[in-house]
Amino acid sequence: MNSLKIKRVPTVVSNYQKEDSDDGARQVGGCGRNCLKQCCVQGARLPLYAFKRVKEAVNENASSFDENKEQPLPFLDSLVLGEWEDRVQKGLFRYDVTACETKVILGEYGFIAQLNEGRHLKKRPTEFRVDKVLQPFDGSKFNFTKVGQEEVLFQFEPSNIDETEFIPNAPIDVENCASVVAINVSPIEYGHVLLIPKIFECLPQRIDRESFLLALHMAVEAGNPYFRLGYNSLGAFATINHLHFQAYYLATRFPIEKAPTRKITSAGKGVKIFELLKYPVRGLVFEGGDTLQDLANTVADSCICLQENNIPFNILIADSGKRVFVFAQCYAEKQALGEVSQELLDTQVNPAVWEVSGHMVLKRKEDYEGASEENAWRLLAEVSLSEERFQEVNALIFEAIACGDVDGKGNVSDYKVEEVDGTRPSHEDAGAISNSSYPAAMVSGKQECLVQQ
Q1: Alpha-carbon distance 337 to 427, whole Å?
Q2: What are the CA-CA distances from residue 61 to residues 109, 217, 269, 298, 324 (Å)?
Q3: Sequence-ordered list of residues with C-beta below 8 angstroms from that of 241, at least 6 positions apart, any chain
Q4: How far apart are CA 18 and CA 78, in angstroms?
Q5: Pick from 133, 195, 155: nearest CA to 330
Q6: Contact in structure between 320 and 245 (CB atoms under 8 Å)
Q7: What burial class does residue 118 get, using C-beta atoms within 10 Å of its C-beta: 0-12 exposed, 13-18 middle, 19+ buried?
Q8: Distance (Å, rounded) from C-alpha 315 to C-alpha 322?
């Protein structure tokens, strides 16, 4: 099959992101930019937040959303906000995101529209492959070791003493490949940061168990239901092939968090898997787990299955780590094949995790002023897999979870996927994606993202 490519205009996430794609191949010895490469990082120091590993079960029934209940501000939450505000005062962001117009669109789900014209400025065109989810890391391209140390807020690591620690001025642990939290200089919302696992290992943008557990720990440690983490695979609008998660604050529920769900199976060790109902993008929701690691392993194994089968996907970690949404999507491929209408293409909206979750980041004032639930629904419906393909993909996921040996390290789990519930609730809304009837047998899926007709 011929390689599919699409002109991609990546968002600038660092002030040191190259304007000229050839610059990344230059030698950087003694660059003087105070970056995170070997030329500058030796002897450098950053704050360190060392979290206590969560061992107890994740209580999915205890929702963090309670607008009438005041809770103490967790330390990580205050640390992120304080350090982020410090970078605002230092003028490190490309625009003032708090000045961007935002509104809740009238309708059942309350899609959120934001006019963010600043994110559309100062970008460089590049050729970005959309037909390959797993691609090797390329050190000549922009990666997060090239950011300035002033853009990094703190190191984020598990504690060695089984207690949470904060060290205001700790050496950067290059030898053990520290994980760091940095600002996104082109923010979508207040407190927009990047979690970069094992930054010095230069991992490509691909999910593994350890890194996903780190992201879940960050959601738990923040303890704020309005702080969500997101992930975009290659082919699902990630623009940098260096492993990272995004996160920001938005003080309202995402539409995806309001959508009804139906339990379709259990994955063992207390993890439950649900299907989204009456939402424009078909997806799965993971909850529970005897421990946080059980939930992380199940979600990670599902995503490893997707990326190994070359299926682009997005992840949303919500409700302080209690719920994880996973969406396989094929918008970029449909775009490359000319299957997306010109009207949608003209909006220049790339439906990544935030858009799929219902936060529509718009680049043109006319789209913002004309924003409606119908328009949001029409765009997101193009993202979704067809019903038939969705069932094929889910069968692959359930089989991978049952096998357990999908992490490439021979770690076989004892997951046992229960028989899928094939019951079908009443079809209340003919215009919405509803429940699907799952076959009991596992069927093999194709390895490309099929175009929804």
Answers
A1: 33
A2: 22, 18, 16, 19, 14
A3: 135, 137, 138, 141, 143, 204, 205, 234
A4: 32
A5: 133
A6: no
A7: middle
A8: 13
Nearest to 230 by CA among 122, 359, 401: 359
- Out of 216-225, 284-293, 322-331, 423-432, which region has the weakest mean confidence (pLDDT)? 423-432
What's the sign of the alpha-carbon dihedral 259, 312, 362, 66? Answer: positive
How many angstroms separate the CA atoms of 401 and 385, rounded? 21
Give the pLDDT confidence score for residue 453 in this predicted structure: 26
Quick check: helix, strand or coil at residue 17?
Answer: coil
Give yes or no for a contact between 197 and 179, defined as CB atoms under 8 angstroms apart: yes
The two three-digit tokens of residue 104, written as one number: 């809740």
Q: Is 242 a catalytic residue?
A: no
Catalytic residue among 120, 244, 359, 427: 244
Give residue-wise pLDDT tens across range 163-191. Answer: 899 999 999 988 888 999 999 999 999 99
Most confident of 13-22, 296-305, 435-444: 296-305
Q: What is the dihedral of CA 225, 227, 233, 238, to 10 degrees?
A: 150
Buried b (16+ CB within 10 A) or exposed e, 296-316: bbbbbbbbbbbbbbbbbbbbb
On the 0-12 / 13-18 / 19+ scale of CB atoms within 10 A, 82 is: exposed
CA distance 260 to 380: 17
Number of C-alpha atoms within 13 angstroms, CB side, residue 389?
Answer: 23
In the structure encoding, which two tokens stand for residue 211, read together? 């890194």
* Residue tagged 């006019």 (tokens): 115
CB-based contacts of 447, cutoff 8 Å, min separation 6 = 309, 310, 311
Handedness of CA 296, 298, 300, 301 (dihedral sign): positive
* Residue whose structure tokens are 């979870």: 401
What is the distance between the alpha carbons of residues 301 and 208, in angstroms, rounded to a whole number? Answer: 8
Which pLDDT score is estimated for 118? 64
Tokens 């991978």, located at residue? 400
Considering the chain, what is the average pLDDT of its residues? 82
DSSP code per residue over 51-97: EPPP-SPP-TTS-S--TT------HHHHHHHHHHHHHHHTT-SSS-G
Alpha-carbon distance 182 to 191, whole Å?
10
Instruction: Enter the DSSP assignment of 384.
Output: B
At 83, give phi and psi (nearest 5°).
-70, -35
Whether residue 438 is predicted with pLDDT greater than 90 in this model: the reply is: no
8 Å CB contact between 207 and 307: yes
C-alpha closest to that of 419 among 434, 439, 437: 439
